């Protein structure tokens, strides 16, 4: 079943609601005040089964100037517009404003219905038709069907249904494969069910018992039940008028403008970079001008900041702008919006969201080039730009949140070209040129380290990361090192693969002297500083030579203060092996080894760690 949403638009009392009722049999005026006053105040809904495989949902919006903000809450997410103009009044002020709103929202298709055709003669009707054709010339409604109708006599309704079927059939079907997003236009209580919200499902799908997230609050909720066009359903799909029964929340906690969406996927924003069009009929828009911002069902106060300088945007012009919102909202690239003045409250412009990250632009930033790429370039180029701007690349989840694309649409775009894909174990995307440059920087840093510290085997990996890649994700340095054949990683040390330890003559002599001092001492070893002081080289090199001997396992460090020659430790292990299974105390150990308590206690603790012995109270067991 293909589902298409049509929105009505037009001046007050031009017969929008009556026309919807005549087409569908459903009265879209649901409020008592609407019926009493005879005007649509809030959004109304109806539906029409055009064919067995094509269902049309109507969003009936108010025409009165005071309720245009309600009109804006209803018109988001529609596929085409049923533009209503009364034959006895022709084009009126709200006709023009609604028409501007539809153009600014990028609505691609429409039909013009000339209502109240029974109230005028044929000549007047033809004159109105000509006025309408002139009015819509050069717009999305140029060449659209113009159908005279009368809800009183029924004249023209069959022709209008055929036109609706033709346009609806040509409208591309919304994809249910996208992320679930439902802007809320109503929240109320149904006796026996609890809290119910309604909206037009603009992307994705939602099922019973599914968890959803309420934006901007971040609250997780459970969908208790689903209705589509008033009938219970297991799931709702993109393009359908949807009602959800939500658990564990009251209607007072919900408001028009909130959005239900897939949990944990998106982030709210208070800044949107956009392409902004100012209507020719508007006054110049000053930098930092306050506006009412409308997108989806949300209305938020905001401030327009022109990103390319200039004191004001002239009527009829387009500019790159940032709109700073007073409250957070869920907005994604590609979302359309409208801006209205504060006083008088009139529609003055609109545009499309390009980015929601609030990137800081510095002097000399190529703002126009950047935003033009985000507005016009293929997915691969847009992804590459976002990845390049991120210091250490981006994970798949962040790319999805920034673009609104599903993971499958993001990943193929990065399989070749300027973006490199890593596994983290989740996919991580990084600018290929940056990756190669960073690898070269690591090579240079390691080479410099070897020059400064020739006696050290290499630089500790964490020191290298802290120096060259501060605050980077830990896996990134591993990926860089793995891609460099000139680099060898040994444990936590990193060195050039070509690096070999070559000692000078005095260093060879000093190393031999250090080893000999510990070897001759047996288990009654001298203090480390004393040995190093007598090595014949300065302290820094002597310490490095000691580390070499420890690394080569010629010496064994038992504690911070005690170092033993490996032959002494082998003899000690042999001595204890002769007493396997025996229990002994510190005194016995001193008798066996002939050493003082100064050496006995650290050695016994070392042997416990090495699982040669095991302490049991005041005694030990030889294992």
Briefly, what is this?
With 623 residues, this protein is of the alpha+beta class. Helix content is 33%, strand content 29%. A hairpin with a 6-residue loop joins strand 23 (336-340) and strand 24 (347-355).
Detail the topology: elements first, then pairings.
Blueprint: E1 2-9, H1 16-24, H2 32-37, E2 44-51, E3 54-60, H3 68-75, E4 80-86, H4 93-104, E5 109-115, H5 122-135, E6 146-148, H6 157-170, E7 181-183, E8 186-190, E9 194-200, E10 205-207, E11 211-215, E12 219-228, E13 231-233, E14 235-237, E15 241-246, E16 259-261, E17 269-278, E18 285-286, E19 289-295, E20 298-306, E21 312-313, E22 318-329, E23 336-340, E24 347-355, H7 367-376, H8 379-389, E25 394-395, H9 396-403, H10 407-410, E26 419-423, E27 427-431, H11 432-452, E28 459-460, H12 461-468, H13 474-482, E29 487-490, E30 493-496, H14 505-521, H15 528-533, H16 539-551, E31 555-557, E32 563-565, H17 566-577, E33 583-584, H18 586-593, H19 597-609, E34 613-616, E35 619-622
Parallel strand pairs: 1-3, 1-4, 4-5, 5-6
Antiparallel strand pairs: 2-3, 7-16, 8-9, 9-15, 10-14, 11-12, 11-16, 12-13, 12-15, 17-22, 17-24, 18-21, 19-20, 19-23, 20-22, 23-24, 25-27, 26-27, 28-30, 29-30, 31-32, 33-35, 34-35
Helix pairs in contact: 14-16
């Amino acid at each position: 079943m293909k589902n298409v949403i049509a929105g009505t638009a037009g001046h007050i009392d031009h017969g929008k609601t009556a026309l919807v009722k005549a087409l569908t049999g459903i009265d879209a005026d649901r409020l008592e005040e609407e019926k009493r006053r005879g005007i649509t105040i809030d959004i109304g809904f109806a539906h029409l089964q055009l064919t067995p495989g094509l269902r049309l949902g109507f969003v009936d919006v108010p025409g009165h100037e005071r309720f245009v903000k309600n009109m804006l809450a209803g018109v988001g997410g529609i596929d085409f517009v049923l533009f209503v103009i009364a034959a006895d009044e022709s084009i009126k002020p709200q006709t023009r404003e609604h028409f501007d709103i539809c153009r600014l929202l990028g609505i691609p298709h429409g039909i013009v219905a000339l209502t109240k055709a029974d109230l005028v003669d044929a000549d007047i009707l033809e004159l109105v038709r000509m006025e309408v054709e002139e009015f819509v010339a050069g717009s999305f409604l140029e060449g659209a069907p113009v159908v005279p109708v009368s809800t009183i006599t029924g004249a023209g309704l069959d022709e209008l249904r055929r036109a609706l079927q033709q346009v609806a059939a040509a409208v591309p079907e919304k994809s249910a494969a996208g992320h679930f997003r439902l802007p809320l236009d109503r929240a109320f209580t149904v006796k026996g069910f609890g809290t119910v919200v309604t909206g037009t499902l603009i992307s994705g799908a939602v099922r019973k018992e599914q968890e959803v997230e309420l934006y901007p609050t971040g609250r997780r909720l459970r969908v208790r039940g689903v209705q589509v066009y008033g009938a219970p359903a297991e799931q709702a799909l993109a393009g359908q008028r949807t009602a959800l029964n939500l658990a564990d929340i009251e209607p007072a906690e919900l408001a028009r403008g909130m959005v239900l969406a897939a949990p944990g996927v998106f982030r709210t924003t208070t800044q949107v970079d956009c392409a902004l069009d100012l209507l020719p009929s508007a006054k110049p828009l000053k930098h930092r001008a306050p506006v009412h911002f409308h997108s989806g069902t949300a209305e938020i106060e905001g401030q327009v900041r022109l990103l390319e300088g200039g004191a004001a945007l002239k009527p009829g012009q387009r500019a790159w702008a940032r709109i700073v919102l007073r409250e957070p909202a869920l907005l994604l690239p590609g979302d359309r919006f409208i801006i209205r003045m504060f006083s008088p409250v009139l529609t003055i412009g609109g545009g499309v969201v390009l980015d929601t990250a609030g990137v800081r632009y510095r002097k000399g930033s190529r703002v126009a080039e950047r935003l033009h790429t985000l507005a016009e370039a293929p997915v691969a180029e847009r992804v590459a730009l976002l990845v390049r701007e991120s210091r250490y690349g981006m994970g798949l989840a962040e790319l999805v949140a920034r673009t609104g694309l599903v993971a499958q649409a993001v990943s193929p775009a990065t399989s070749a070209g300027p973006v490199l894909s890593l596994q983290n174990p989740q996919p991580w995307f990084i600018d290929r040129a940056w990756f190669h440059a960073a690898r070269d920087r690591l090579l240079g840093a390691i080479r410099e380290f070897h020059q400064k510290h020739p006696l050290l085997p290499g630089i500790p990996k964490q020191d290298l990361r802290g120096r060259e890649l501060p605050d980077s994700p830990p896996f990134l340095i591993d990926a860089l090192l793995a891609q460099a054949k000139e680099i060898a990683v040994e444990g936590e040390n990193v060195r050039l693969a070509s690096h070999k330890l070559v000692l000078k003559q005095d260093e060879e002599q000093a190393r031999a002297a250090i080893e000999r001092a510990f070897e001759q001492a047996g288990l009654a070893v001298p203090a480390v500083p004393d040995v190093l002081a007598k090595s014949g080289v300065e302290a820094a090199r002597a310490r490095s030579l000691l580390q070499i001997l420890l690394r080569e396992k010629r010496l064994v460090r038992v504690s911070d203060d005690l170092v033993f020659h490996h032959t002494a430790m082998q003899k000690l292990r042999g001595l204890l092996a002769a007493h396997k299974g025996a229990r002994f105390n510190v005194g016995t150990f001193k008798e066996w080894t002939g050493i003082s308590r100064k050496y006995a206690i650290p050695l016994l603790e070392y042997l416990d760690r090495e699982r040669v012995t095991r302490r049991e109270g005041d005694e030990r067991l030889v294992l």
